[in-house]
Amino acid sequence: MKTTFHSTGFQPAWRSGTHTPARQVVAHTGGIVRGKFPSVKAGRMVAFESLLERDALYLCDFSESVTDIREQPFTLPFTDGTRVRRYTPDFALKLEDGSTLVLEVKPAAKLTQPDLAQTFALIRNEMRATNQRFRILTDDAIRREPRLGNLKLLHRYLSTPLPEPVSHVLHRSCPNKTLEEWGQSLGGLPYALAAIAHSLLIFDWSQELCLSTPVFAPSQGDAHVQNFL
């Protein structure tokens, strides 16, 4: 049966520090975990409706192209030929170029279901018709290890303020050290982890971050941008 979407553009209202979801985040049911994520990019607690959505928020917070996050950002009405239905995306991400990326988080196994796959194909077409970027993020991409474990370890340090002398130490020091050695140079391991969280130090995300992990200081003036979406 052909499904038709209303040709209307939908955009979240990007007002700093405030957000009213298009629908209420559902309560705890059937053992499924709901909660709130302390998002640095949003500057507030962002509600999630599954652990997979929570894990996706780590990627969003560490992607430098993302400047804000809205959960349940808008509702898109459509008809399936017999009745009006509604689709509410999981998240909308405001990007640094001013555009919006609409994000749906789903287990990859669910997308093999014919009805759901057809629905999301139609949603993607509607988003394209209204000049909106749309992406489905699956557990295959979100839960890639050891990257996700590293993001969880570093997330708390996104809010750690770095003393002014840290940048001078970074450029005066030998550019290649272990994490433990950077901790000694910067006055403590938390400062080294905060420097990594803020991309002032870099490492190979395909390795588990530990004291012996090689960590590098980019050359002064070199741009290092990390994006996980």
Automatic annotation (TrEMBL):
<dbReference type="Pfam" id="PF08722">
    <property type="entry name" value="Tn7_TnsA-like_N"/>
</dbReference>
<dbReference type="GO" id="GO:0003676">
    <property type="term" value="F:nucleic acid binding"/>
</dbReference>
<dbReference type="InterPro" id="IPR014833">
    <property type="entry name" value="TnsA_N"/>
</dbReference>
<dbReference type="InterPro" id="IPR011856">
    <property type="entry name" value="tRNA_endonuc-like_dom_sf"/>
</dbReference>
<protein>
    <recommendedName>
        <fullName>TnsA endonuclease N-terminal domain-containing protein</fullName>
    </recommendedName>
</protein>
<dbReference type="InterPro" id="IPR011335">
    <property type="entry name" value="Restrct_endonuc-II-like"/>
</dbReference>
<feature type="domain" description="TnsA endonuclease N-terminal">
    <location>
        <begin position="63"/>
        <end position="139"/>
    </location>
</feature>
